[in-house]
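Data card: per-record layout.
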Amino acid sequence: MMKRSRQVRRGGFTLLEVLLVVGILALLAALVAPNLMRMGDTAKIDLATSQVKRGGTIGNALKSFRFHVGVYPETDEGLAALYEIPDSLDEEDGKWKGPYLEGDPEDLKDPWGNEFNYRFPGEINEEEFEIWSNGPNGKDDDGDEDDIISWRKK
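The structure for this 154-residue chain is written out next.
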């Protein structure tokens, strides 16, 4: 009696099938990745906007400072006045009730890791403060298109 040899076919994928799947995944990644990147940039812009606008984190801290002290910090005192009593104030008169923000002044950065800019009195509105982020490009081109500002554009 002769034994018949059976060919056992193993279940698996051919090289062509694997390459086809990899190609489809690469195509999907090429279409989805730019949209995800834009969403990340949009989220950073929204975060910076929420920090610098008048009712934002920094804006509210500056308003509290003015409520207690009577004036906004000067430009040269900067946002550090929200963390430590400025030299221009007398510690004993008790007006400064800070710190008005948690953490350290060095930690107050925009979503791109750059320091916020602060000016008082403002150039656009002399009675108010101005805060802005240099935006995604990080360049200090006062008024650049990607800057995120606390004042309304005219």
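Known properties of this structure: The two ends are 99 Å apart (CA to CA). The beta strands are 117-119, 130-133, 148-149.

See the next section for split statistics.
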